[in-house]
Amino acid sequence: MIKSKPLWRLNVGGKNKRQKIRRDNRDIKREKQEQLDSENVDTKLKLTEFVSVSELAGLLDVPVSQVITTCLSLGIIVSINQRLDAEIIELVAGEFGHEVEFISAEDDVEEENIIVDSEEDLSPRAPIVTVMGHVDHGKTSLLDYIRSANVASGEAGGITQHIGAYEVKVGPDQKKITFLDTPGHEAFTAMRARGAKVTDVAVIIIAADDHLMPQTKEAISHSQAAGVPMVFAINKIDKPGADPERIKQELAAMNLLVEDWGGTYQSQDISAKQGLHVDKLLEKILLEAEVLDLKANPDRQGVGTVIEASLDKGKGYVTKILVQNGSVEIGDSLVAGPYSGKIKAMFNEHGKKVKKAGPSTPTLILGLSGAPQAGEKFKVMDTDQEARQLAAKRAQIEREQSNRASKRISLDEIGRRLALGTFKELNLIVKGDVDGSIEALSDSLIKLSVETIQVNVIHKAVGAIAETDVLLASASDAIIIGFQVRPSANARNLAEREGVQIKTYSIIYEAIEEIKSAMEGMLEPTKEEKIVAQVEVRETDTMSKIGTIAGCYVTEGKITRNTHVRVIRDGIVIFPVKEGAHGELSSLKRFKEDAKEVKGGFECGITIKNYNDIKTGDIIEGYEIIEIKQTLK
Ligand code: GDP
Q1: Residue 410 lies in a domain
Q2: Ligand 1 pocket: which of 130, 132, 136, 179 to mutate (most atoms <8 Å of CB)?
Q3: Model confidence pLDDT, tens digit, residues 585-626
Q4: What SS3 state is found at 403?
Q5: Whose CA is nearest to atom 2 of ligand 1?
Q6: Looking at the domain assignment, is residue 120 inside a domain?
């Protein structure tokens, strides 16, 4: 093992000190390398960006003072609790013979607490199923049919509530399946991508009167990437023109052979609308799940995923969660992303109060301190204090990461674009009622970015527009977008004082359209030239006081006294030759009288300012510069 160096040895001054440090580090590095070689351990350190000096020392298994002095030798003065940049972490770790790999704050926390359940504690759990597929192929219809058939079968006795997932019981054994009832489709690709982590089995629904569509293929690749087994549901077989065999053929062309075709993928022809063969589909899902041998330990502290979270006027933050292992009970202290809280109440999908939710059970909980993002993991902690601390730590890391990340973008990226000349930024703060719409709206807004205008969503969260949002907007020149939420009276007053713009919407599309037109207003108009007159020089006359007078004939358009002009000889512009310069008339006459304009088909006399070399046969071209408002494509 490495012995800590006594502190006094580090207090040697100046150059000696630095050499000393290097030597110490080299010794440590060598010792560590030997140790690692002998143990054949991976030297890669997994850590989050911005770990503190003391945490880094712990990870490197060296005294804190060594890290501090190493930083000093690199010319950086740090304190024990200071968080370090990725670059510095890499340098310091390198000094001690470690490569580093940066992981997100969440991964880090997750790793601290992996509990391995022993076999005898495990019992079977219901599969969690996601239905994916192209828009209009019948996802909603299938989910609705399964849910209502289940309610009709006497399960519920209450209005079904949307809690992001629901459980059904299938067949004589009443085996359970949990369906994720993700709202919307393409708008929430982000959630779906995260959703795959939760999913045990994916049902890929394909309309038999259609083809494998882009979103079908996307859904298939999502499942394949996540290693989630797929069951195909070939839908709408009741429709005339439905051709399930063609769909199977198209699947085969993608190397996905269904069982009828001698392959391994299960598929079922169904009609979601009529409920035809849906029971068989459910059986196939159960069969797929059996192979997976899904188990969980209901007696440990609950862990799982947040499906959706929102702010409710009367209830506070409402979080829809799916328990994946262990159980969650009323009174448990829970942490989800950067939020924590004690569970005050729990409800199932039938709106009934429940006291406990075991593995694969969806529940709605009240009591969290905020609305975590969809897809965020949650975990029950031993005490409220622990939950709060962990949440605070994550919040701090998130804040720091976003601070630094946004700074980095503004330095490098904006610098590059400023060089382009007309770079502008549109900073937005997006607040909304549910996480799903905030994500969808933010994504769409960011996608409006063009080369010259970068749209930044500097902050997004569930909840009413608060004074802190206004302050943030004021500090960063941002506009606040409220989706289905309003500013508090204080926030409104503050916004007026600070001159912060708050825009509220209840339709995502409208918000996007309005921001788009605002951006179009920010775009520099392009300048374009419009030819307004073609004038032929028929004869010239030079007068000493005036210069060359050209006797002309307007062949096309209309020349006016103030039109810009250029002189063209044999197809070549001979005046003005300076780039960007415009020629001007010094006089325009008709029958010796000054004229404001001369139309096509008429003769006129022209003199050009600062240019006398006009010859018979030259063409004088009249043109205007017009500004064209740009639009976003
Ligand atoms: P989603 O966009 O994938 O959620 O698709 P929907 O469930 O909203 O279905 C799109 C349309 O197809 C709706 O008009 C449904 O009524 C219709 N549809 C869904 N399943 C069937 C089916 O099995 N047969 C027929 N004829 N129509 C269906």
Answers
A1: no
A2: 136
A3: 999 999 888 999 999 999 999 999 999 999 999 999 999 988
A4: helix
A5: 136
A6: no
